[in-house]
Request: fold
Amino acid sequence: MKRILMFPGQGAQYVGMCRDLYQSNAEIKNLFDTVSIIINDDIADIMFNGPDSRLTESRNAQVAILLHSYSAYTLIKNKIEPIAACGHSLGEYTALLSADVFDFETAVKLVRRRGELMSEAGEKAKGAMAAVIGMDVEKIEEAVKEIEGIVVANYNGDGQTVISGTVEGIDNAVKKFGEMGAKRVLKLNVSGAFHSPLMNYAYEEFSSFIDKFTFNNPKIPVIMNVTADYQRDADKIKELLKMQIVSPVRWTQIMKLMLNDGHKNLAEVGPSKVLSGMAKKTSDQFDVISVEKSEDISF
Reply:
C-alpha cells in the first residue's frame, strides 16, 4: 500500500492518548521507558493521567505527540510503502524520524528542547495567536500587512488561517477580521506567538542545540513546512528546522503539492485525526486513512 505519511503537531494531545497501544505492545512500552529516562519524568503518567494542564505544557505535549505518532508508526511501517512524509510543525520531526534522518533518542531530545525553548521565548516576548475562519487567505495576508506586530503562522487550508504576534497586534486583528466578515476569529490557548519573529530567542538557542546532532539524508523525500517542497539533503533539513520556529507552516501549499503530483493516498499517523480532516476539506480526491489506536491497524 503506497501512501504519503502525515504526522500531527501540537494541539493533538489529550489525556489518555496512546494508552491502548502501550498496553498491547512490548516494543512500545520500551519506547515509553526510553522517553522517561531522557526527560527524567514518567511520560506514561503524563500522557495517561495528565492533568491536561501538565500534558499541555509545550515541553510535555511535544514529546507526547512524537511518542504517540512514532508508536503508531512502528505498528504500520511494514504495511505501508511510504512515497514521502510530512508533518505539521512539531510533526515534521516524526516525519524525519520515519525517514531515518535521526534516531528515536535524538528526536526526543530535539522536541523536548524545542518545547522548552518555545515556552521560554513566550515568557520573554509575550505574544498570542488566533485562528481566522471563513475568510480568503489573500484578504488575510493583505490585512496582516496593515496591522503592526502580526504575521501569518499557519496556512491550514479551506478557510482556516492562524495568525501570530504581539498581544496588542492579535487583539487588533481579532477586531479587524470580525469587521471584515470572518465567520469566526478565535484566540488560541497557547504560551507564545509560535511561528513568528517573537520566537527569535528560541530560534537562536535551538540553532546552537541542533547543530550538536548529526543528520542523515532521508530514505524518502520529506515535504518541509518552510518551503512546502520535497527535501532530501540532511544539511538543508537542519537549516529548515531552525527556520521553522520563526516561519509559517505552509500546510495548504503542502496539500496542493501532493494533489498536483498525483499523490492522493495519505495516512495520518498519530493522535486526534486533525490532518485527516484538513485533507478531506481541501479535496475530495484525497483518500485518507488515520492510524491512532490499535483498532486502526487492521488494514
About this structure: The CA atoms of residues 31 and 58 lie 20 Å apart.
